[in-house]
């Protein structure tokens, strides 16, 4: 595939559930037009309602020139929705067979220089692109939920993806205010979800073993390391924990104990009993709070946090 000079003005959003609707709102806020499609009953109405609900947060962040939540069209038919788009953000169910077929259909009707990006949480693009005429334009564009607020996007190609497409996709996301990263190898779950999974594994294990309650585990993260992780990643936090001598000193003194903790971590199974225990713990926490206020309050604080980090300019 030759290097494309296509300007992205219109994005096709395929699948308008939680992730797709959030992406659609964000693209609109960045001054882009959106053509959306979803086969689910009532999807159009839910999409418009979600965009209305998310728009105040996007206004607080700051709308780009030309931002207009009315610049969205919805189509029941996939092929019709993709007519005239310059970039596609796919957000279908996390089922490999379904995505292979979906990408085959999209690939069949779009010019070869239009990027097909998937929001897949863990599937491999080498598999997703396998039935495409132009597999070189298929790439992962995995956001972190909610995409309209969280900057991170993981961008990685499959075995047949063109390096130019990876570069173009990274540039597009950066140009609309995202923080794209490029994993060097395909792995299930990519980077961020694998890191989350490692934490979830031990959180479930601690509940399973009766070491701590669900509420105590949530408090341990939300009021402890989670506050630091919101500002800096695990390696930079280790570096700062080493004082003036930095990460070398920290690893010399705590490397052994950390490795010992690794060996002591659990290997839980997602049994019905464990799922019930965790769910019960979550429901008990919710008795004290108004769950309907969680999302707007989370979004308000996320907007402030991201803005503060951006304004600082002193953190990596």
Automatic annotation (TrEMBL):
Residues 10-183 form the 3-hydroxyacyl-CoA dehydrogenase NAD binding domain. Residues 189-257 form the 3-hydroxyacyl-CoA dehydrogenase C-terminal domain. The chain crosses the membrane at residues 7-29. One of its GO terms (biological process) is fatty acid metabolic process. It comes from the Bacteria. Keywords: Membrane, Oxidoreductase, Transmembrane, Transmembrane helix. Pfam families: 3HCDH, 3HCDH_N. InterPro entries: 3-OHacyl-CoA_DH, 3-OHacyl-CoA_DH_NAD-bd, 3HC_DH_C, 6-PGluconate_DH-like_C_sf, 6PGD_dom2, NAD(P)-bd_dom_sf. Gene3D superfamilies: N-(1-d-carboxylethyl)-l-norvaline Dehydrogenase, domain 2, NAD(P)-binding Rossmann-like Domain. GO terms for molecular function: NAD+ binding; oxidoreductase activity, acting on the CH-OH group of donors, NAD or NADP as acceptor. The record marks 142 as: Important for catalytic activity. This is 3-hydroxyacyl-CoA dehydrogenase. It comes from Pusillimonas minor.
